[in-house]
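Please produce the structure of this protein holding adenine.
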Amino acid sequence: MRIDVITCLPSLLESPFAHSILKRAQEKKIVELNVYDIRDYTLDKHKKIDDYAFGGEAGMVLMIEPIALLINKLKSERQYDEIIYMTPDGSQMNQSMVNQLSLLKNIIILCGHYKGVDQRVRDIFITKEISIGDYVLSGGELAAAVLTDAIIRLIPNVLSDETSALTDTFQDNLLAPPVYTRPANFEGNEVPDILLSGNHQKISEWLDNKAIERTKEKRPDLWEKVIKEM
Ligand code: ADE
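Below is the modeled complex.
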């Protein structure tokens, strides 16, 4: 999979893309991540990429020309399955949306900043608009990092134990059960006996029950969905 992120603040994405699972996925050549700086595509002699909004509203708007130049260049080089714009007024990201995106080959993710991008960028180029939640960030970069991470960890062979993505919270609409590690007894707080029993069937039943218990208690809305889909 190839993900091309377009931003006016590339350094904001450096760290999330250079560590842990995203780093390993790139090293293993399972994923190619590229970050493009909008400023490299402006034809303006002062390298201007934003301007005041028409109509007098406060705040700067990212201009269409450099973004159009860059997106058209990328589109001339390969076909993209989705061109995504990160925005608080997009469809709210969830696990099933991420599962679908993880099956694609080439994606562009455009990050807004300031007041966002000229509406014509959205009208002409964007195929999907995604929000990571009902709150406003200073720009789309952190949201793009969240989306990229959520997608990439689902691609086969990215995680060393492949089953661990399948047992994630939200796959099947269930929250994940609790996990424990050594020591088995911390200052009198003991790990449930069943997990030390070595009985895999019993352990698996216990984990399933805990996942259900946890979902009912913490996310009754998700539990409703599970019941409806039964
Ligand atoms: N840009 C600013 N806020 C955002 C959000 N909540 N989701 C996605 N992109 C954003």
